[in-house]
Amino acid sequence: MRNGGAIRKGEATRQRIIARSARLFNERGFAGCSMQDVMEATGLEKGGLYRHFQCKEDLAVEAFRYSLAQAVKVRTDHLDRSRGAVELLRSFVKRFVATTSPVRGGCPLMNTAIDADDGNPVLRALARKGFSDWRARLSGFVSEGIRQGEIRGKTNPRRVANTIIATLEGALMMSRLEGKKTPLKDAQAALDGMLDRIAAR
Amino acid sequence: MRNGGAIRKGEATRQRIIARSARLFNERGFAGCSMQDVMEATGLEKGGLYRHFQCKEDLAVEAFRYSLAQAVKVRTDHLDRSRGAVELLRSFVKRFVATTSPVRGGCPLMNTAIDADDGNPVLRALARKGFSDWRARLSGFVSEGIRQGEIRGKTNPRRVANTIIATLEGALMMSRLEGKKTPLKDAQAALDGMLDRIAAR
Fold first, then answer.
1. Interface contact B110-A114, CB threshold 8 A
2. Gap from A130 CA to chain B (nearest CA, Å)
3. Domain holding B15: CATH number?
């Protein structure tokens, strides 16, 4: 029992390190965030940190997973699936524009993509999988809409998915940089127009 | 005369440092690129480097300006203005999709936006101005098209400009990450569709 308690306590410390360092890595990137920064943010000594993570990459990987899971949750939980594929996609876009990722520093996928495209290969592979999963999910909604006769049969699901993701991510980058919602609102209007046009009539 | 020669030689060295460090900063970001890295890339000693730039920020600012100027040049030189605003915008999108920024590491504006949104304020201000100039240029094309009767009167120039920029930048990020052109090609198809619909008939 005492051993189980120690394991639980160790796991709680590990989770606390991940949660606290997630924001650091998301804001500063892999190269811009040192283990010294993590020590300061967590209040742990070097030994305590390395007991839980072999190296900075190990921690950055867990921090990325944590940030991504938080972002996916806030953007996809409880989407209304009752009104068909077009409205589902519309509500996904609306949610993305209206909500901020719970881990500060913007979208962890885009940050990691930009940070790792010429950098860390493990993080790059994780970001690639993140986009691939996201595209599969959105294009699945489109395919289902086509099957149900709600979306025009000649619509290309991958193209719709890629366009939604690219437009939202680009607009989020601009909105964060400029400190205003206008680029995101403009993106939403453009994507709503696209969704109107793929809807079967 | 000898003094003029020394000034010219100094200026040539300065320009060489900027050109060589532009790629480093574009690939690695401000925090991810040290003066040590720049010394290695240029073959200069610390003293030689600091003779030309007071600090890393000074050099990063010049490197960003250089990278941005190169990207703007390759993306906007010799665009065909003879066939009206819609075709001009279409050819701009096509050029963006077809050409790679001459300074390796992707779009310097997006890289700096992501790197500096929680980081260096001077670089952030420069990136903000870069997007603002780009938006002004594209929305100027739309406004001119409306005046000439080539674009529908109810079109919102800012919205069209923001959508083009966001979609292209997001798609470029995905294409670079995935090592394929598909996201950019999909973005081009979607933007072509949008341009078809704002054209006056």
1. yes
2. 11
3. 1.10.357.10
Per residue in B129-152, pLDDT (tens digit) is: 999 999 999 999 999 999 999 999
Exposure string for B97-124, b = 16+ CB within 10 A, e = fewer: beeebebebbbbbbbbbbbbbbbbeebb
Nearest CA in chain B to A165: B170
- Report pTM: 0.93
Residues 6+ apart with CB under 8 A from B3: none
Over residues B146-190, the pLDDT tens digits come to 999 999 999 999 999 999 999 999 999 999 999 999 999 999 999
Contact: B28, A31; criterion CB under 8 Å = yes
With contact defined as beta carbons under 8 Å apart, do B161 and A170 qualify? no
Residue of A28, A93, A118, A172 to mutate when probing chain B, most B C-beta within 10 A? A118
What is the span of the domain harbouring residue B82? 2-198
Question: With contacts defined as CB-CB under 8 Å, which chain B residues touch A129?
Answer: none
Q: What is the mean pLDDT of chain B?
A: 93
Number of domains present in the structure of chain A: 1
